[in-house]
Amino acid sequence: MCEAERMEKNYYVCTGCGMLCDDIEVEAEKNIVNKVYTACRVGVAHMKEGTDNAVFRVGDKPVDEATAVSEAVAILKNAKNPLIFGLGTSSNEAQKLAIELAKKTSATLDDPSSFRLGSLVEALLQNRFKTCTLDDVRNKADVTIYWGTNPSDSHPRHLSKHSYFPRGKEKQRGWEEERTAIAIDVRKSHTAKICGNYFFEIPPGGDAEFIDALIAALSGKLPKTSYNFPPKRILELANILKGAKFGVVFVGLGLVYSLENLEPLFRLMDALNEKANFHLIPMVGYSNTRGFNENLFEETGYVNSVKFEDGAVKHGPEYSIVESLKAKTVDAALIIGYDPFSSLPRSIAKNLLEIPVISLNPFETLTSRNAKVYINTAVGGVESGGTATRMDGVKVDFKPVVETKRLSDEAVLKKIMEAL
Questions:
Q1: CB contact at 8 A, 56 and 68
Q2: Angle, alpha carbons 238-240-242 (nearest 5°)
Q3: pLDDT single digits (tens) 358-371
Q4: Same domain, yes or no, for 157 and 267?
Q5: Are 128 and 236 in the same domain?
Q6: Structural domain harbouring 366
Q7: Selection from 321, 291, 285 nearest residue 306 by Cα
Q8: How far is CA 330 from CA 100, 129, 208, in A?
Q9: 208 and 245: one domain?
Q10: Is 154 helix (H, G, I), strand (E, B) or coil?
Q11: Where are the alpha helices (DSSP H) in 132-230?
Q12: Within a domain: residue 394?
């Protein structure tokens, strides 16, 4: 949807996931969203999360804004190797400020993509895969593969808005006649049930072998796997794929975690494009993880896990949050919009208890409760505006729905930068 049309109809953008749906209608009263239309169940919950309360805390003590920012600045000034982590729900503007802050403080900078889909996005930015937009999928795609992902639950409007059910400009007869949906996964998910007979259940860790078998089938050879997947079914799948006029592979964590590296996926996409026309889109979860990856890539050539030092940029797994906390190489942490105490293994997350932590988050979390400084920030897309990058790389502008006393991530980072 174009910006003019969206503004004319007063539509909002939902920042509940990486799809950034731009056709959301809301009703708000007294700066509280009470009704949400068009959004999925994830989006409705997200759009109703705003509140007018602003919380600033140092330790267990409530403080004012100036004191909280001053304490955060002192922590970063005293740190020799601070860690800045998170930013998957922050605007592009806030992310760029965080990169500048990391440079200024010689910090280690990372985001959740270092243990999620970062390698896939990096390969896309290096033009290792052919890709397309979700709008292309809606208008042109005749074959879609959901590999190691279950968008029916993780991105509930994905199939209805973009990939399978909609009537596209070139696919007016839709899923009944012009679209084929295929699921490849280790279990029969809700998405797999929609795909019906085109669900291919493989064992955990079996993706690389299945890829090899599929490549063989695409070449007309007899496909084989050590787990005895029926060769006839793989041959049938290969024939469907070879007939695709506009195919798309949606890749999720299930596939990425199963592979030691992306080499099998490179080979598969090359093989598919020798026979047909295939594109790849990563199933990014957070609203602006793709934005962080692109902003950091533009600045450094890397999408995550970097260390700024003496005007140079170092990169490697040792600069990810996981390895940094394991090795105890960081001596302070600024965590933005993320809750590592809940999401990381306890053996790793507990090391955050040994260093001062600054938490910027719209919500109370285990991380904010254990933080030296907690600043209760605005919910992006509900209480603050900016730009974000959709899972397919499309830039999206979003505006706030309601007003709030809470500062946005961007506003807090500006104050910290000015004080430094």
A1: yes
A2: 70
A3: 999 999 999 999 99
A4: yes
A5: yes
A6: 56-116+288-378+405-419
A7: 321
A8: 18, 35, 36
A9: yes
A10: helix
A11: 134-140, 151-154, 174-177, 190-195, 207-218
A12: no
- Which is it for strands 25-29 and 32-37: parallel, antiparallel or unpaired? antiparallel
Q: Are residues 160 and 247 in the same domain?
A: yes
Give the start-end residues of each E strand in 52-134.
56-58, 61-62, 82-86, 108-110
Residues 294 and 225 in one domain: no
CA distance 381 to 20: 10
Residues 202 and 334 reside in one and the same domain: no
Q: Which of 332, 300, 303, 333 is nearest to 317 (CA)?
A: 303
Amino acid identity for residue 312 in this structure: A
- Within a 10 A sphere around the Cβ of 300, how many other Cβ atoms? 18
Mean pLDDT of the chain: 95
Q: Please tell me the distance from the alpha carbon of residue 288 to that of residue 295, in angstroms, as a whole number.
A: 10
Q: What is the pLDDT of residues 202-214, one digit of tens each?
A: 999 999 999 999 9
Helix, strand, coil percentages in the chain from 3-state DSSP, rounded to 5: 40, 20, 40
Q: How far apart are CA 410 and CA 87, in angstroms?
A: 10
Taking the C-alpha atoms of residue 336 and residue 407, their distance in angstroms, rounded to an integer, is 13
Kindly tell me if the per-residue pLDDT of 176 is higher than 60: yes
Report the C-alpha dihedral over residues 320, 324, 330, 333, rounded to 10 degrees. 50
Q: Is 210:202 a contact under the CB 8 Å cutoff? A: yes
Q: How far is CA 74 from CA 63, 67, 79, 218, 367, in A?
A: 15, 10, 9, 60, 19
Strand bridging mode 357-361 / 373-376: parallel
Give SS3 for 417: helix
Answer yes or no: do 353 and 412 share one domain. yes
Inter-CA distances, 420 with 66, 76, 80, 313, Å: 14, 9, 14, 21
Q: Are residues 275 and 139 in the same domain?
A: yes
